[in-house]
Amino acid sequence: MTPVEIGLISILGIVVLIYLGVYIPIALGLVSFVAIWVMRDNLELSFALLKIAIGDSVMEYTFATIPLFVFMGLIVSKAGLGADIYAVMNQGFRRITGGIGMATVGANAVFAAVTGSSIASASVFSKMSVPEMLRHNYNPRFAVGVVAGSSVLGMIIPPSAMLIIYSFVAEQSVGQMFLAGVVPGLMLAAAYVGAIWFMGRFTPGFVGGEAIEHGPLMGWGEIAAKTLPILLLIVVVLGGIYLGWTTPVEAGALGSLLGIVIAGLRGRINLRSFWETVLETGHITAALLFLITAASMYARMLGIAGLPNALQDILASNQFSFFWVMTILVVLMLFLGTILDTASIILIVVPLFLGLIEGMGLSLVWFGIVCVVAAEIGLLTPPLGISCFVIKATLDDDRITLKDVFMGALPFAFVMLLVLIVLIRFPALSLAIL
């Protein structure tokens, strides 16, 4: 067999292994190791490339962003900032039909700016938002759909773990990827709010609910007490990166320190919970390091197989335009989204298209935003929509089935697809503040 054929079989093997439940880094690393050995008939070369992949991952200075931002997100969750921003948003949208859903989107957008985790958002807002919406007679499918749809904002609004992973795979600046995610993330949040208004106006049966005309209102002092801490974190982290005062690593360190101070002042952390947070950060960081190392090995296998060049030659020989290249990419990612998680999709697809996108003179930063948004849709689609599973597990309510969660998330997945098309058509949106 030719190296290209071995490379194609390897990709298929990786997808099958992941689908069968093999741990993603093991599937990526093991198959890539064996494929290089078979292609070059040299076991020492496979070990040498594995050593280089591990060294590159561990020794990268920017890798320090991962434990710092993970720690910051966990601390912020313990400090209860998600509940605070939700309460404020809920008051702002209370008189609008579908207002609690809009408040959930807004709170998720702000919460995502300091956590970067869709799973954390889905877990936190399932406990707060869904019971509140059910109490005000909202359709259960709409209630869980809003939480599922808005939870994916954590994957695009910085600091996002997926943007960090992409930056390692594509060798792009983490800071630039963070800044590029701001406008698309806000666009997606605004599109969700617009979609909720549209559904409330034209499909009221799906939304249900009622406007809240009465009830206690928070004073300006209480609003400030609930919003200033999280706004301060956003300014310190993203403002420092945008103004060039801090690197992403330094911003993560400052954000973590500020998160500890806020949690301490609120009495939400002690030595035991601090130690538990440190341990959880270590577990998540180790898993991501393993994933990035395996992805590095996979990228080297693709290079040796010549698959990126072969793909570029096929598309060039058939004179595929920019439109068709993007169509192929999006369709492939949407298909993989039905069976794989976001990280797997990015790690498998991105290395195949990097050379082609760069050869077309397109921005790899913009391409990263497109890939992350496209892969995010998979969080909402069956059978492996992770956010939907997290919501179902968190609610533990027999009245709401997994089918209800997926059906409720479907309109929001469609909105994501529309936003993705706009981002592809107008790359300047992703590069606006760079």
From TrEMBL:
**Database matches in InterPro entries:** DctM, TRAP_DctM
Query: May I have one GO cellular component term?
Result: plasma membrane
Q: Which UniProt keywords apply?
A: Cell inner membrane, Cell membrane, Membrane, Transmembrane, Transmembrane helix, Transport
Q: Where are its TM segments located?
A: 6-38, 58-76, 96-121, 142-166, 178-202, 223-245, 251-269, 281-301, 321-354, 361-385, 405-426
Reported function: Part of the tripartite ATP-independent periplasmic (TRAP) transport system.
Q: Which NCBIfam families match?
A: dctM (TIGR00786)
Record's subunit section: The complex comprises the extracytoplasmic solute receptor protein and the two transmembrane proteins.
Q: Which family does it belong to?
A: Belongs to the TRAP transporter large permease family.
In Swiss-Prot or TrEMBL terms, this protein is called TRAP transporter large permease protein
Name its species: Candidatus Rhodobacter oscarellae
What does UniProt list as this organism's lineage? Bacteria, Pseudomonadati, Pseudomonadota, Alphaproteobacteria, Rhodobacterales
